[in-house]
Design a protein that fits this description.
CATH topology: MetI-like fold
Distance between the termini: 26 Å
Family: Belongs to the binding-protein-dependent transport system permease family.
Low-confidence stretches: 1-7, 11-17, 282-287
Radius of gyration: 26 Å
Oligomer: single chain
Keywords: Cell membrane, Membrane, Transmembrane, Transmembrane helix, Transport
Strand content: under 5%
GO cellular component, one term: plasma membrane
Pfam family, one: BPD_transp_1
CATH class: Mainly Alpha
InterPro entries: MetI-like, MetI-like_sf
């Protein structure tokens, strides 16, 4: 029987191919995103219709909740005039600077705390104390100390993002397989090579997950800061329009912020999947 089986390798390979073809294909990240949007589209359309009909039918006061078509018309005017692009650019610039400063601070500190237990014990209480203090509660402090200029807004975005990155970096470093570290040490690997070739690649998925949370929190924090003390930005646009009872402009700013948040979410999800793709392929093993 074994001789017969060995003399027919094409038969065995064809059976393997049939089994592989029978297995369901895993949908790609783009396919999953498209499916999610498609399935959720009817609910969004229904909400948009309700938004348009309710003020026109008199169910709610159109002064405080204008129809969607009016909001979109104002939004288009702001896009054409370039006013909206200016506000978006200023808000994103503030959030980006704060987030990048958080990355430069949190990632090295997270590697030190995750790798050296004595350093973690000495600094953990301070980190936990600051982490459990809301950035919104500290916003008046930042304004008093740093003024109403750019520094206070960048500081609040930094504070909002730094702890997400720090904690996730620590978790990523601690989740490195000890066998990999021992194997690298047994081969005489230096501390720098150990960090570069073992610890950092293994911690990347956790760092990217922290970055995903940090980016969104930075943006939302800078919007709150702009509402309180600013003369530009999406937050200022929303707050100023609300005070002037220009509710169509206010909702246009809110809608813009929603669209930016959605785009950032899908971009960060795609980046996170790309960063963790190697882990899935490693776990599945060779076919």
């Amino acid at each position: 029987m074994s001789l017969i089986a060995d003399r027919n390798p094409p038969l065995r390979s064809s059976l393997v191919l049939r089994r592989k073809r029978a297995l369901p294909k895993t949908p790609t990240a783009l396919g999953r995103t498209f499916t999610t949007i498609t399935l959720g589209l009817p609910a969004v359309i229904a909400f948009a219709l309700l938004w348009e009909i309710a003020p026109r039918a008199g169910w709610i006061n159109a002064l405080f909740f204008p129809p969607l078509s009016q909001v979109l018309a104002v939004l288009w005017e702001m896009i054409v005039s370039g006013q909206l692009a200016d506000h978006i650019g200023i808000s994103l610039e503030r959030a980006a600077i704060g987030f990048l400063l958080a990355c430069v601070t949190a990632v090295p500190l997270g590697f030190l705390m995750g790798r050296y237990s004595l350093f973690e014990k000495a600094s953990d209480f301070l980190v936990q104390t600051l982490r459990n203090t809301s950035q919104f509660a500290l916003l008046p402090v930042f304004i008093i100390v740093l003024g109403i200029g750019e520094a206070s807004k960048i500081a609040i975005t930094f504070y909002a993002a730094v702890f997400f990155l720090l904690i996730n970096t620590i978790v990523g470093v601690k989740s490195v397989d000890p066998l990999l570290v021992k194997a690298a040490r047994s081969m005489g690997t230096s501390d720098w090579d150990l960090f570069k070739k073992v610890i950092f690649p293994s911690a990347i998925p956790s760092i990217v997950a922290g970055a995903r949370l940090g980016v969104k929190t930075s943006l939302f924090s800078v919007i709150a800061a702009e509402m309180l003390a600013a003369q530009s930005g999406i937050g200022y646009l929303i707050q100023h329009s609300s005070l002037m009872l220009e509710t169509d402009r206010m909702y246009a700013g809110i809608l813009t912020l929603t669209i930016i948040g959605l785009l950032l979410n899908y971009l960060l999800v795609a980046g996170e999947r790309r960063a963790t793709r190697w882990r899935g392929s490693a776990e599945s093993g060779p076919n």
